[in-house]
Structures are given as C-alpha cells and as structure tokens.
Amino acid sequence: MAAQPPAPEIQALIERAGRARAALGESLDSIQDKFHPKSLMAGSVRSHPGRWIAGAAATGLLTSRLLFRRRPKALPVKKSHPMLFFILRTISNVVAPAVKIWLFSQIKDYLARRAQGATKPFPY
After folding, report:
1. 3-state per-residue secondary structure call for 106-123
2. Single pTM value for the model
C-alpha cells in the first residue's frame, strides 16, 4: 500500500510552520548576536571611545600607584627580652606536635562516630 499524499490544507500548514520556524530561528540568532557580551563591549567602545581611553588610563595610573609606591622605611625594632622569646619558642616547638596528634585523634574519633550513625557529640 502506498502512502497517500497529505491534503493541500495540511501541506499548506506544514509549509507555514516551516517558514515560522525559520523566521524564529533568524530572530533568535539576531537577538543572540545583539546581546552577546563581545558585541555589547564593541558597541560601547565604538559609541564612547573617549570614556574607554580615560578609564583605561585611570586604571593604569591607579594600578601603578598601588603596586609600585614607595614604602616608608621601617623603624628599627628593639629586641626586648630575647631569653623570654627563646623559652616561649622552645616550649611551642615541644608542645605543638603533641597538640597536633591529640587534635587529629579527636577528629578521627568524631568522624568514626559519625560514620557509625551515632548522633551524640563528644563524650565530655
């Protein structure tokens, strides 16, 4: 059995839908081109070149002032109580590894309890 050709009304509707689809595609393409960031930037630069040049110059000047400014010379710092700082540094060097080990064990226990589904916080 051969397929019957569609009725002329249906054929006209199919052609009309095709033309509408093509027109919508063209309008969508033109809208995308119009509102694309690159197009917007180029249009803005073309319409206000003086503002863009002034903005670029101001940005360059501000950046160079911030990055390459002369810093005032630091005043000499007097070391007071060097023995006290030596003792504190030595104590912190001795205590820090123990604190680190204790803290990691607490975190490990906490995560293990959470993995088991316990909802209780730390036992203390």
Report:
1. HHHHHHHHHHCCCCCCCC
2. 0.35
25: number of Cβ within 10 Å: 10
Domain ranges for the chain, please list them: 8-66, 79-124
pLDDT in 10s for each residue of the chain, 124 residues: 456 777 888 888 889 999 999 888 888 888 877 788 888 888 888 899 999 899 999 999 988 888 877 777 777 776 677 788 889 889 988 899 898 999 999 999 888 888 887 555 555 5
Instruction: Spell out the SS3 assignment of 44-85.
Output: HHHHCHHHHHHHHHHHHHHHHHHHCCCCCCCCCCCCCCHHHH
CB 52 within 8 A of CB 45: yes
| Residue 18, token pair as written in the block | 């095709």
